[in-house]
Amino acid sequence: STPLRTKAGRPEATVLTTEHRKCKHTEGAMKFAVAVALIVAAAVTARPRSKREAYDLPDGAELIVGSIKTTFECPAKNGYFADVDNECLIFHVCNVVTHADGKTEIQQFSFFCGNQTMFNQLSLTCAFPEDAVPCQNAPDFFYVNDNIGIPDAPFLTDADVEKASALIAGARKSKA
């Protein structure tokens, strides 16, 4: 029997081989693309979850805060913490996470208070300096975080408020 020929005069088997090569090439490119996608996906999921970096503040934060010292490290507990080295113009939210494999990670998120305010460790808010616990005394109130998440615990006790009031009044007098 005579082999079938194409219009170009080539045997049909050659045409099939050429078409087969085109499919193989496309198939190979698809396999490569899928392999690359899987490798990228594996690399992204295999990496430890990246936390928001400490001191990852918005552009221009230095205009409000001044020169930023990156010395604060979260204690091994959850809460809101004034950054004394930055004159309490920056505060940090610390979050302790225990992963399924038992490893513990401390996430640290940094923020800065608005212009002319500082972090008040007593109320865990930004406030005007004359209404806030003096920055150097902020660590004396880090324990305020211990009541966060406890339904029946008071946020502040009368003793907390009295202690802070005395410090705030003393700071006001020293500035007068």
UniProtKB/TrEMBL annotation:
<feature type="domain" description="Chitin-binding type-2">
    <location>
        <begin position="71"/>
        <end position="137"/>
    </location>
</feature>
<dbReference type="InterPro" id="IPR002557">
    <property type="entry name" value="Chitin-bd_dom"/>
</dbReference>
<protein>
    <submittedName>
        <fullName>Putative cuticular protein</fullName>
    </submittedName>
</protein>
<dbReference type="InterPro" id="IPR052976">
    <property type="entry name" value="Scoloptoxin-like"/>
</dbReference>
<dbReference type="Pfam" id="PF01607">
    <property type="entry name" value="CBM_14"/>
</dbReference>
<dbReference type="GO" id="GO:0005576">
    <property type="term" value="C:extracellular region"/>
</dbReference>
<dbReference type="GO" id="GO:0008061">
    <property type="term" value="F:chitin binding"/>
</dbReference>
<feature type="region of interest" description="Disordered">
    <location>
        <begin position="1"/>
        <end position="20"/>
    </location>
</feature>
<dbReference type="InterPro" id="IPR036508">
    <property type="entry name" value="Chitin-bd_dom_sf"/>
</dbReference>
